[in-house]
Description:
Layout: H1 7-13, E1 17-20, H2 22-32, E2 72-74, E3 77-87, E4 99-101, H3 102-114, E5 120-131, H4 135-145, E6 151-160, H5 162-168, E7 172-175, E8 180-182, E9 187-188, H6 194-200, H7 224-249, H8 253-258, E10 263-265, H9 266-272, E11 277-278, H10 284-295, H11 304-320, H12 325-344, H13 353-360, H14 367-375, H15 381-396, H16 410-430
Parallel strand pairs: 3-4, 3-5, 5-6, 6-7, 6-8, 7-11
Antiparallel strand pairs: 1-5, 1-9, 2-3, 8-10
Helix pairs in contact: 3-4, 4-5, 10-11, 12-13, 15-16
Amino acid sequence: MSWTNYPHLAARVLNQPLMMDPAWARTFFDSLGARLAAAGVKDPPKKDDELNPQAFVSGKGAENAREGRPYRIEHGIAVVSITGTLVHKFGYITPQCGMTGYDGIVRSMRLAMSDPEVKGVLLDIDSPGGEVSGAFDTADLIARMGKIKPVWALAADTATSAAYLLASACSRRLITQTGTVGSIGVVVAHRCVDKKLQTEGVEITLIHSGSHKVDGNPYEVLPEAVRRDVQARIDETRMMFADKVSASTGIPRKSVLATEARTYDGEEAVRIGLADSVINYEDAVFAMSEFLKQKGGLMKPENTTAVATAENNAPTAMAENNVTTAEMTAAAATQERERIMGILSCDEAKGREALAQALAATPGMSVDAALTILQASPVAAQARTETALDTLMAKESPEPVETGAGKPSAQESRLSGLRKAAARLEGATHE
Length: 431
């Protein structure tokens, strides 16, 4: 079958930067080589003094959604599946045909953020990566939504390249003992059909305006100048990738780049900082749920002890299963009261009482998220006036140092100051 029957696929995977696991990419292009008129994968020439960064991504999916949700809920945790090749605008909310769309991931997470039954989100990743287009924006959105409800990642099998970019945006990254992460790099595949066309007696002439209009076309061997331009572009993308990982994990960018797109498994990934802890796949959801019960909110970096405790206790707690429904209900009620009071009694709620009450009544609204919203909201006019008057009174009528005979008392001084302040405010109103 001719490659001309696959124009859309060719446009998505050829001459475009990809963040995909190298081994998976080689298999992918080899299997589609005949259809894309490419005999196989040819590595670029290497020079002793030149580094050629390459990198990729991968992941594994979760069970089908129940009750119309694009995720399953266990112990209050929404498990969002990220499986197979990652593509930009796939059009499906759940993984299909070995692919997951960035658009589907974002939509699933938005639904989880507004779902009152969801206390946190676990990204269940088994993906070799995929398209650069859409990957960085999706990672930023994951980090942003992590401020509303906790978002963790689990490398149940593979979370490399673009999939690791998404995992790095989460507040905590779990990995199974055989899970794989890393491959922080970029690759571009160029197809050249020049020899095939010569064999078939076909000659293609490209008439173009603009010297770079036909850069990377498949009808000629890639010119060296174009190769350098492509290399510069993917080097820049790799730097963006490394910066994101560094900012999220705390690993210096120099150390991230020093991995040279290598992948790491289990304990080794934890040792270098690309993952936080090794856990059994079956325990991940329960460990996250237990941590949220202990902390009752968003995870902070200093909470690593609580996280480790929850993860270590997960197998035992699940085996014993000695927590009654009544105890769980009571604990949930206590946590909900603490959440509501935390929002209503904070300093930021002063002058914003109506908004604070609305936020407290919103299911799943954490205290930290409410504080962020309150801080960004204007203070009521009454509160502003009172604050200004308090400041003016303190300035105009300070506490007297001493009260001797013939001197006004502290109360008289304050009353005098109050009259002056009222007169000034009245004059300002008339003006």
